[in-house]
Amino acid sequence: MSINKNDRHFMEMAVKEMLRSRSEHTDKTDPLVGAVLVNAEGKLLDKTSRGSLRKGEHAEFTLIERIQSKTNLEGSTLYVTLEPCILRKPPKMPCVKWIISGRIKRVVVGMPDPNPEILGKGINFLIENGIVIDFFDLDLIEKIKEENKGFIAEQIRKEAVPRDQLVEFSKPSEEEIRLIETASIDDLSADLIIRYLKARNTSYEFPSDDLWKFLKKNGFLGQSDTTGELIPTVAGVLLFAKRPEDFLPQNRVMMEAQFGNKVVSDDIAGPLLTLINLVEDFFDKNVRIFTEIREFERVKIPEYPKEAFREAVINAVAHRDYKAGARIIIIMNDEGIRIMSPGLLVAPLTLEKILSYNAPPFSRNARIALTLNYMHLMEEKGSGLRKMRDLLEENGLPPPQFNIDSGYFVVKFSSSLYSARGTRLSPKLLSRLSKIQNDIVEWVIQKGRITSAEYAERVKIHKSTARRQFNKLEELGILEKSGSGRSTHYVLKES
Predict the structure, then answer these.
(1) Which residue has the higher pLDDT, 262 or 295?
(2) How far apart are CA 24 and CA 57, in angstroms?
């Protein structure tokens, strides 16, 4: 869902321009970038692509400083398929500076920059300078990523650029790169780091100077200002420390399952790469199991699909605010599951975008999210919310609910109508039933048994009409007749 009716048109225009981009290098892949500029009244000013006028010129610079240099751009909107840059070799100026100097009011971004050293910083810099940020629709973001897959692959593998050669506008405000002065490289797990290296298709001896250099480049280690020694960052501790909770107690996850009078709780800790599995283990042990009727077979399944739960947990772990002292809280009970993640949404994400399932892949913790992606625990395409919704609906459950509550971002899975006997019909089978047949089955599941006369009286239909519906449910293998004469009644057919 686009932000307004004209946004989609200009987004698509920028994507078309992107495909006209001209590369200036033969030894590396340059990004394809398209840009569209619209004035305060919503009228198109112009459009262009990377390298359209001069070799190596960024699309934003070409549009703002070359094509529209004599135009008053105050209040205008820029649509650009790649996050504006914050790094340029002097004397060149980064695109964020051109945007701000042009008094552009709003920037609609397609793909965030895939370089972990840059990802999100251009967007954050613009926000800090009063620029309104929005994102392209998810389907267009995926198209932009597909066209730039070579560029993306190179960016996430390349060495960090020496900072003294660049003009950089990045306030190190991200909590995940904060150094943990009380931790040391001895606190890191060799097994976890080796798993990470394998996922990155690279290898280093553990321990070794080359390995420490690699981890420092990726934001997991830094140099202490007081001792000069290499020490882990927040991200390094959360992902690779043997006991991250010793340094960051907020890393723990509080879990509780309460069904009837039975209450089970646990305080789960550990590095993120194993913590997710421990949370899943709690789910497996405590989720309610139901018998699902699938025509002539009965299958034991959990009340909620594990994949949907896993998606919600990974999102909570990847995107929560680790600066906050609070823990992730997960409550399972008769009403459903609530997954509470500390921290509000990161600008420019909004609850409206989340509720429309059109939230872009923008994370508070870029390094953590990227690492989980390397480890095949989460996707970067921004499709997680839709996947969660689809999995729930495929299992006959309501879509997830999203809310902000007391400093937490909350995801809730709601329960459906089940009986104490723990039986339900598969969504596929339910879709084949009429409204009356659905009503009959629901009655039987809730009450355990029913007669055709009782049902006819309840809904005020003729007994013969009711009998026809019961006969159909018998044919489908859902109900079976029990008793005889006046004692004849219907129950769920045994497997």
Answers:
(1) 262
(2) 9
Q: Outline where DSSP puts E strands in 117-200.
A: 132-135, 167-168
Rounded mean pLDDT of 417-444? 70
Coil/strand/helix, residue 481: strand
Percentage above 70 pLDDT, the chain: 88
Q: Bridge-partner residues for 367, per DSSP?
A: none
Give the span between the Cα atoms of 449 and 464, in whole angstroms: 19
* Token output for 41: 């009244």
User: DSSP of 393-424, one letter per residue?
Assistant: HHTT-PPPEEEEETTEEEEEEEP----TT-EE
Give alpha helix (H) positions in 24-148: 59-61, 95-101, 121-128, 138-147
Sign of the torsion angle spanned by Cα atoms 444, 448, 454, 459: negative
CB 411 within 8 A of CB 236: no
If you average pLDDT over residues 305-326, what whole number do you get? 90
pLDDT of residue 4: 62
Query: Cβ distance 131 to 234 under 8 Å?
Result: no
What secondary structure letter does DSSP report for 482? E
Whole-Å CA distances, 188 to 217, 270, 323: 16, 12, 21
- The whole-number pLDDT of residue 343 equals 85
Q: What is the pLDDT of the chain when averaged over all its residues?
A: 85
Distance CA 472, CA 35 (A): 61
The CA-based diameter of the chain, rounded to the nearest angstrom, is 96
* C-alpha–C-alpha distance, residues 359 and 344, integer Å: 14
Cα separation, 396 vs 299, in Å, equals: 15
Residues in the chain: 495
Dihedral (CA of 185, 189, 194, 199) sign: negative
Query: Are the C-beta atoms of 363 and 369 separated by less than 8 Å?
Result: yes
Higher pLDDT, 370 or 13: 13
User: Helices marked H in 287-365 — which ranges?
Assistant: 306-319, 351-355
Predicted confidence (pLDDT) per residue in 122-158, tens digit: 888 888 888 888 888 878 888 998 999 998 888 766 5
Task: With CA atoms as reference, report the closest residue to 104 among 140, 135, 129.
Answer: 129
User: Which SS3 state, helix, strand or coil, does residue 333 take?
Assistant: strand
- Cβ burial, residue 386 (10 Å; 0-12/13-18/19+): middle
Q: What is the per-residue pLDDT for 381? A: 58
Q: What is the pLDDT of residues 208-263, one digit of tens each?
A: 999 999 999 889 999 988 888 999 999 999 999 999 999 999 999 999 999 888 89
Give how far Cα 343 sits from Cα of 34, 173, 254, Å: 34, 15, 16
Joined together, the tokens standing for residue 100 give 């701000």
Give, for 81, the enclosing helix (H) or strand (E).
strand 77-82
- What's the average model confidence in pLDDT over 421-433? 68
Tokens of 398: 């309501």
Say how far residue 432 (Cα) sits from the centre of its chain: 33
Supply the pTM of this predicted model.
Answer: 0.67
